[in-house]
Write a structure and sequence with these properties.
Structural class: alpha/beta
Helix content: 10-25%
Shape: flat
Order of helices and strands: HEEHEEEEHEHEEEE
Number of strands: 11
Strand content: 35-45%
Length: about 200
């Protein structure tokens, strides 16, 4: 990567990110069930902070603090490889797997980041931290990113807006929504928090 940068083969302005499932060497019928807590604390803390700042800006009183409700879910843990995760999605093969999150640079399609997680980790979860790592490690001045529809979430939208990065994100189906403006297959999604482009997949 650093060698490619020295030869000016990496621009660092536009990055493409997607993930691929890698099948683990684990029998899908050999597992135990485990109850785990859903980790959304960081996102909600960030969101609540933004809401409070907006209310102060508009002269409104702070909202009353709500009691934390811990959400849990049941997952399958492989007895062969406890580090992988069980994938069960519509129209996909059920299996224990890992998720390879990979980013490439637009200039010459050089891979700039690879990060592997258990297969149950959502695409969007490690994205912003991996983007920040590339900026810090390689000094990228990222202007725009292109992402698959799995990254079309509010935390990603707000995170890109906070970083002043324009996002082009795939959108699986077109559902008429307030604030969604049609222009062929390209849509601009706007609200008070962020703006980014969404491309509808056929």
């Amino acid at each position: 990567m650093l060698l490619a940068m020295n030869h000016k083969m990496v621009g660092g302005r536009v990055l493409f990110t997607d993930s691929t499932h890698l099948k683990a060497n684990a029998n899908k019928h050999k597992f135990t069930k485990q109850e785990v807590e859903v980790d959304t604390r960081e996102y909600f803390d960030d969101l609540n902070k933004a809401i409070e700042e907006d209310r102060i800006k508009h002269g409104k009183k702070p909202l009353k603090e709500k009691e934390d409700v811990k959400e849990t879910k049941e997952i399958r843990v492989s007895t062969t490889d406890s580090d992988c995760g069980f994938m069960s999605r519509e129209n996909k093969q059920e299996m224990f797997c890992y998720l390879d999150h990979r980013t490439t640079d637009m200039k010459f399609n050089i891979i700039t980041d690879v990060y592997v997680t258990p297969g149950i980790v959502h695409d969007s979860v490690p994205y912003l931290s991996r983007l920040d790592r590339q900026v810090q490690r390689f000094g990228f001045k990222v202007e725009a990113v292109t992402l698959d529809s799995g990254y079309l979430t509010n935390p990603i939208g707000k995170g890109l807006s906070d970083r002043k990065i324009f996002g082009v994100i795939a959108h699986r189906r077109l559902h008429p929504t307030t604030g969604l403006f049609k222009n062929g297959n390209l849509h601009m999604i706007k609200n008070e928090t962020y703006t980014f482009a969404s491309i509808t997949k056929s």
